């Protein structure tokens, strides 16, 4: 097996999720059209004396993540098919078995689910928003996507482990760059 090609295929496959995960602060905060959705998903509810999710998890962010992830999956799927890249086949993804729009939406739902799940867990163990929760701050959307997609589409465990490790490395690297440039508040 060509490991470099496998790694590239994993990254290409998950790029829409990476973009969806990073989109809310970039798109949502600068878009007045979505201002009405800037309300917390949890409705500011408490659970055992702590916020359910936290005020930073908003409907605006959720909508942006779903739209960006689903939309970018369509673009990357089209590019893959048009240029016959063969990357999906490298990771064992038989794209002809699923509608790309539905699969893109499932990928995006998994991204959002992982983010919200670990926000919930962080609040239960009294970790505040923005505080480190390594490695889950960096990989929560891989775990969420695994939980949503794996029961419907049986990827090999090697794919998920590779994606988990790659995502951690990519996330930490880009956050360090953003932190050093003054674009990000946390190093992790």
Q: How would you describe this protein?
A:
With 188 residues, the protein is mostly helical. It has one domain. 62% of the residues lie in helices and 2% in strands. The chain contains 6 helices and 2 strands. It has helices spanning 3-27, 59-82, 87-90, 100-124, 136-149, 157-180; strands at residues 46-47, 50-51. It has a two-stranded antiparallel ribbon with strand order 1-2. A hairpin with a 2-residue loop joins strand 1 (46-47) and strand 2 (50-51). Helix 1 (3-27) crosses helix 4. The two termini are 32 Å apart. The model has no long low-confidence stretch (mean pLDDT 91).
Throw out a few tags for this protein.
188 residues; 6 helices; globular
Produce the secondary structure layout:
Elements: H1 3-27, E1 46-47, E2 50-51, H2 59-82, H3 87-90, H4 100-124, H5 136-149, H6 157-180
